[in-house]
Amino acid sequence: MLEDAEVIKARPEFPAIVASIGKAKTEPNLPEWPRIHEFVSDAISKALALEKTPEEALQEADKKTKVLLTERGYYKK
């Protein structure tokens, strides 16, 4: 069906979707993941808004992530 010419004509995005499925990655299965995702998203926003350099923003996200994971027992204090 996804290779059917009529389907592709009606939905030209299908080949790109099919190609991306093999490259897709799942998010980490950690209860802390939503917070880590928030740290990284905030860092990207700060860098794009020129509030921080990309390096500074990601270093901040890294620090916050390490603190969180240490508190949760993933790293030794």
- Taking the alpha carbons of the first and last residues, their distance comes to 54 Å
Strand runs, count: 0
Low-confidence segments, given as residue ranges, are none
**What is the H/E order?**
HHHH
How many domain modules?
1
Instruction: Specify Rg, calculated over alpha carbons.
Output: 19 Å
Average pLDDT, rounded to a whole number, is: 93
Instruction: Tell me the β content.
Output: under 5%
Shape: elongated
Task: Characterize the main sheet.
Answer: none
Tell me the number of helical segments per DSSP (H or I, 4 or more residues long).
4
Structural class of the secondary elements? mainly alpha
Measured as a percent range, the helix fraction is: 55-70%
Describe the protein.
This protein has 77 residues and is mainly α. The chain has one domain (5-71). It is 62% helix and 0% strand. The chain is built from 4 helices and no strands. It has helices at residues 5-10, 14-21, 33-48, 54-71. Helix 3 packs antiparallel against helix 4 (54-71). The longest helix has 18 residues, at 54-71. The chain is elongated. It starts with a helix and ends in a 6-residue tail after the last helix.
